[in-house]
Each structure stands twice: as C-alpha cells, then as structure tokens.
Design a protein that fits this description.
Chain lengths: 302, 307
C-alpha cells in the first residue's frame, strides 16, 4: 500500500493543509438505536418519493401523486365556479375512487423499500449494528405508512380547502373531512403492511411490483365478484360481510361502521357486530403482517 | 483486559453441533481464526455480535456480555460479512455515509468519516460511481470501509480475501495489518488459508468441527525457523552442495529444497547460486513450516477425537 505517502486525493487541497494526517479516531457523539431508527424512517420516506435516489426513480411516485391530486383540483375548481352547495365527491369516498392509483403506488414503491436490502443482502449490515430487527421493520413500515398518508391525504385536504374557498358551511364539511383523514390513516397503515409483506416475500424487484399489484387487484376483484353474487342472490347478511375480502373495503367498513361515515364503494358492515368484526380483522391483519415481516428478517441474517 | 472471552461456548442447530465447548481468551491485536469451511467460524462471529443465542456457555466482547449487551457490543464492533452485501445502484460514498449513520453517527460526522475511511482503504475517484461496476477488489474495500466507518474498537472480518487475485490478497492483508497497527483497531480475521494469516496475525486460533484445536501466538508457533521453499528444474544436487558449503541449512525432497532463513542474505545466496549453476528457478516461496505442521498436526488429532 503506497497511499501512505500519497497526498489526499479525495479532499480538495487547502493552502497550508497537511495532507495525509493518518488515521484519526472518532470521539464525537454516538447516538443510540432511536436515532438510527429515525434516520432509517426519514430515508425510507424520502426513498418512496425517489428523493435521494436517481432522477428516474422520482418519475413514478410524482406522476402518481399528480394523478391523485388532479381530480381533487378539478373538483375544487368546479365547486367554486359553478357554486355547488357541496363538493362533488364525499371526502370519505375519494380514496375508493382513486383506488387503482394507490394500488400502483404501493406496488411500485414497496419493493424499493423492502427487497433492495434483502436481494443484495444489505440487511445483515443493519443487524450487525445496534438496530434490532423489530426496530428496522418498524422504521420501514412507518416510512411507507407516512408516504401513503401523504399520497391519499393531500388530495382530500385540497378538496377540503376548495370547499372552504367556496365558502361552504364549515360545520357540514369538518366532521366528514376528519373522518376521511382518519380513514386515510388506517388505509395507509394497512396498505403499507400488506404491500411490504408481499414485497419482502418476493425479493426480486420486477416480481415484487407485479406481486403487490396482483394481490391488491385480485382481492378487490374477488370482493366485487362475491358482492355481486351475494347481491344477486339477495343474501343481505352475507352481503354485509363481503367487504372483509379486500383491504380497501375492509378499511372502508371500519370508517363507515366505527366512524359513522356514509358507505362508499364497499358495503357497510351490518350493525354493531359487523363493525366490531371489521375492526378486529383490521387489527389482526396488521399484527399478522408485522409479525411475518419480523420473522422474515430473522431468517434474512445470512 | 481480554478482547474476547468465551467459556464452554456451545451452539447447536437441532442435532447439528456448530460449536462445542469453545473456551477462548483473545487479547487485543490482530487474531486469525482458521478452520475449514463449516468449522464454525461464521457461527462464532455471529455469536460474538450478539446475533445468535448460545446453546450453552457464555461469551463476552470488550468486557460486555453478548447475551445481555448485544446492542452495546454492536455499537463498538464492526463486521465485514463474507457474502456480497452492496447495492449496485448507489455510490460507495453514499453507501458508507448511510452505514455510518446507521451506526449512530450524526450526518456531518458520517460524511467526514466516510470520506476518510474510503481514502484509507484505497478508494479515490471511483467512490463516486455506482458500485455495480466495481471490481471484486474494490467491493471488498467498500465492505471493509463500512465496517470501519464508525471507528470501532474491534472489527470482525469474515474471509476478507475470498475471491481476490494474488495481488488483491496482498493489498487486503496489508490493509488488515494497517488496521491493527496504525489504526489501533483490534481485528479478528477468518480464513481457511493458514498461510496468509500467519503474516498479519499476532495470534492464531484454529477451530475444527466447532472445537478449539490450538490457540497460539504466531511468534511461538513459527519460532525462528522460517524456511524458504526453492524448486528448480534440473539437477538440484550441485545447488544443495553449494548451499551447504555456504553454511545454509538445506533439506531436499526431489526437486524441492527447504532452506532455513537465518537472515535476508539467504535469498541472495540462493539467487546467485541458481544463476551461476544455470538452473531454472521454478519457485521461491517463503514459509513457516512449523505453523503448517500445527495445522496438519491438528487435523490428525481431531481425526482421532472424532472416532
């Protein structure tokens, strides 16, 4: 090794600076697992929108965010100009309306969040550091959840702002808006958990995208079919529970049942028992996804 | 204070025993961990990082119990895995900065340390390029850099010379020597090649089938009996006589001669003698034969123990 005598080629030369000063020890602060977890969360969140990644990886998330926001902006403009007495779409319906865009976002970004560390076996470098596997999964999950919250919450908020600009009665708008935002939050965490789990189980990037989109689309499709059949046979009790099949209608059921919104795309759960069941299934689903993710990383040590 | 101390360390995966009653006391410095594939080297490293629970026995690193103080151990230890672990789409700088932050360093310090460390391992302009295009040698350097970036008290290097060509091996071994000497960071380095470790390590731990075969300092293992192996084509007879008359200790086995290295002049003696006798020099290789014997010795003993 001859770089001993070679001046520091990496740093710009400063006048009078001593170039190779040899190895220096670090005696600055060392933060604990909480700082590391927060850094990983911020990095994950930025990564889902392509920030800090190549220009190419910014295209997709921002295109999708644009697609999410566009209808809200158009509706807002119409509301103001035409002077409607209510916004054209209920806040709680908005997510169900643009479901496909959300699905594509979850599909395209989950593999970027999850499979990279698994496919290139970077994960073992995280776990030989103070961060535990649980904290790692929590940070990734939180990053994806906040990304989805922004994706769905921004258009709903814009719609709400346009309603305020059109001077619609506040007491009619606020409760519905708050319910919608709570629904967005639950949607975000459920979709993030499902998306990340599917992505973690399919470490190959292209496959991961397809798998996540397929799982969400197939579940939605199944829900529609079963609901159609139940409706045709006139079985009302069963009809009420078809919403359990897809994550979207599941969360919608929680929002309509527990938060008292009017039912949108899906079918409202029948009565108090149904509401309890929908909420319970959501909680169990979240817990299952989280445990499966932690288990996946227990194996990934390599 | 001991760097690493294990007492009766045993690790079983179901019916498979990876480590069996391993009791070690490793002092600071550069220590080689030698064993065939599957001898339990990687398992031992993972236990020392507090990532694998032990079946029996205990282990402490830097005075911290790995079973209870895992995160504290990992904060002060660096680890370079054997397998590839670099994402191809980011540059070495971005990657090492990120890994520094994942070790708990604030962002500005992480940037400084990453630039410093990459320079020390010998990566310059290329560190701004995506790592997908790196050679194996460069990738190994980045892996070493991420293990050193938070200035640990100890680094665990799992097969760092794997896949490198002879020149790359030399560079990596020299780097390891600098980490232990100039940087003042203790090193545990594993390899299945004893020969390359004896040159950089102050002590060698040999394990086989999860058991400790031998733990000794290289000085005591190699003693003063360094030898150089010389292979010539042509009749080695005159060369042996000539070296004998010059006072060198020579043993011959066919075309291969083993010559004791008393001091550096022995090399000149061999060179001059070969040139004057007009022989073709096939090989001139320095060895410490006693260390090699220790390994074969150990193999025999463990073979006996398994019966």
């Amino acid at each position: 090794m001859s770089e001993h005598a070679v001046p520091d080629r990496g740093a710009p030369a400063r006048a009078g600076a001593i170039h190779d000063i040899g190895y220096r020890h670090y005696d600055g602060p060392r933060h604990g697992a909480r700082y590391i977890q927060r850094s990983l969360f911020v990095e994950t969140l930025r990564g889902t929108y392509g920030l800090g990644r190549s220009a190419r990886s910014k295209v997709m998330p921002f295109l999708l965010l644009g697609l999410m926001v566009l209808p809200a902006v158009v509706m807002g403009i119409i509301t103001s100009y035409v002077g409607l007495t209510a916004v054209p779409v209920r806040y709680t319906d908005y997510v169900m309306l643009v479901q496909l865009v959300v699905t594509i976002f979850v599909g395209s970004q989950s593999p970027a969040v999850m499979s990279r560390d698994l496919r290139f076996r970077v994960a073992s470098l995280y776990f030989c550091r103070p961060l535990s596997r649980r904290q790692y999964v929590q940070a990734k999950l939180a990053g994806m959840t906040v990304a989805l919250f922004i994706l769905m919450g921004l258009p709903v908020t814009l719609l709400f702002c346009s309603a305020l600009l059109a001077e619609l009665p506040l007491d009619e708008q606020v409760p519905d808006y708050l319910r919608a935002m709570a629904g967005v939050a639950i949607h975000a965490v459920v979709l993030a958990a499902v998306g990340l789990l599917v992505a973690a189980l399919t470490p190959r990037r292209g496959l991961g995208v397809a798998a996540v989109v397929a799982v969400l689309l197939v579940l939605s499709g199944m829900e529609l079919t079963v609901r159609g059949l139940a409706s045709a046979f006139g079985n009302d009790t069963f009809l009420g529970y078809t919403g359990l099949i897809s994550p979207y209608t599941l969360v919608d059921g929680v929002v309509t049942g527990a938060l008292g919104a009017d039912s949108s795309g899906g079918q409202a759960p029948p009565g108090a028992l149904g509401t309890v069941l929908f909420t319970l299934v959501t909680v169990v689903l979240l817990a299952a996804c989280y445990s499966a993710l932690v288990a996946r990383y227990r194996k990934a040590l390599g | 204070m001991s760097l690493i101390r294990t007492v009766g360390l045993t690790k079983r995966y179901g019916s498979v025993t990876a480590l069996e009653g391993l009791t070690l006391d490793v002092q600071p410095g550069v220590t080689g961990l030698v064993g065939a594939n599957g001898a339990g080297k990687s398992t031992l490293l993972k236990i020392l990082l507090g990532l694998l629970p032990t079946t029996e026995g205990s282990a402490s690193v830097l005075g911290l119990d790995v079973a209870t103080d895992g995160p504290a151990v990992r904060e002060r230890v660096g680890y370079m895995p054997e397998h590839d672990c670099l994402p191809p789409d980011v540059s070495a700088t971005e990657f090492v900065v990120h890994m520094a932050r994942m070790s708990g360093l604030p962002t500005t310090a992480a940037r400084e340390r990453a630039a410093d460390t990459l320079r020390h391992v010998g990566l310059y302009e290329e560190r701004y390029r995506p790592m997908g295009g790196y050679s194996t040698g460069m990738r190994q350097r980045v892996k070493l850099a991420q293990a050193l970036v938070h200035d640990p008290a100890l680094v665990l290097l799992d097969e760092p010379t794997n896949g490198l060509d002879p020149a790359g091996r030399e560079d990596m071994l020299e780097l390891i020597r600098r980490v232990g000497g100039e940087f003042g960071i203790s090193v545990i380095v594993t390899s299945h090649l004893l020969g390359e470790l004896e040159r950089v390590c102050e002590s060698i731990v040999v394990i086989d089938g999860g058991r400790l075969l031998r733990h000794s300092t290289t000085a005591s293992a190699t003693g003063a009996t360094a030898v150089v192996t010389v292979e010539v084509n042509g009749d080695p007879g005159p060369l042996v006589r000539r070296l004998h008359t010059a006072g060198a200790g020579v043993r011959s086995a066919g075309n291969v001669l083993e010559i004791d290295v008393v001091d550096e002049t022995v090399y000149d003696l061999v060179r001059d003698a070969v040139a004057e006798l007009d022989l073709g020099l096939v090989r001139l290789e320095r060895q410490r034969h006693r260390l090699t014997e220790m390994f074969t010795d150990g193999d025999r003993r463990s073979g006996g123990a398994h019966v």
